[in-house]
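FAQ: What does the model actually see?

It sees only this:
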Amino acid sequence: MCGRFQLELTMEDIKNLLDVIGEVKERYQEDRLSSFVQEKQDFYPGSLSLTAGHDGLQKNLWGFPLGKKLVFNARQETLFEKPFFRQAALKERCLVPASLFYEWQGKEKIKHLIRTEDSLFFMGAVKEKFPDSSGSITEHFSIITTASEGEMKKIHDRTPFILDKNDIRRFLDPKASPEEIKEILNKRNLNLLIERASKEEQLSFF
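And it is asked to produce this:
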């Protein structure tokens, strides 16, 4: 699954992200772009984090509210079948940029730091608007997960789905058919670099 990730973003990273999603940089004033610059920080369900979609860059809350809980992961295998995610899967897919994510192994909760070969990668997600307790509308995202492969199986049976850059624009296109999106989601995940956390890092679950 994915219940915690880390993100660090420079202005150069943000401009590169706009290129990746096919956004026109001129739509954004420099001061607005600077609001997305991110010092190294960990994010948890309920956090406000950057997403990138067909409507550009936004900051959204992590987790779809369901009663008093947050549903922060969506299974790739049932994304278009589950009523809770179906509309978002059809029209509101997005990316969640990350520098790494964390996973804890077994009953001992052995902490691992997991990256890709790139310093920044993009997890697939869906987003939807929900009313908050005051009646205001807020937008939330849930990260898509897939069955773990290779070494990740030894740590956890679920892994966030990480998009190949060649698939990103098609994934974000609201006109793409469910079959096209399923084809992308059925691909093997990118190669992951797994590092067991140091003794000092193991002492803190959070």
